[in-house]
Amino acid sequence: MKQFTPDPQSIEWMLEGFKETTAPLSMFKGPLGCGACTAALQPIDFIFTNKQILWVLDHIASFICQYMGIEGGKRSVCLGGVDAMAQFLLPALAEGIFSSSRVCDEYLHLCNSPKITELSAD
Questions:
Q1: pTM above 0.70, yes or no
Q2: How many CB atoms lie within 10 A of CB 11?
Q3: How many domains does the chain have?
Q4: Segments forming the whole domain that contains residue 93
């Protein structure tokens, strides 16, 4: 099976580099370090799932879209694009890349994760 080699411009490539630089933090691995990390990430979950904050982020993203001239910088296009994607994208980020299990476990090496050796459709 071919090994995955991320593109140097991709987020996954940057995250792999981040994992290597944070490896020394594994000396804090254990219940205390894991709990502290998980607690520190609670505000991110709140930010990405709070309706008022999402509303503000929608407007900021729409302004940036218009200011940068994305898709011609038309207000209706920017508002429609942001409205269509933001309600799904931000919660997905909170549950994916910025989830406490991924950050504290994969990137910072503070929590013990279950090792999955095989995935099966059965």
A1: no
A2: 10
A3: 1
A4: 28-107
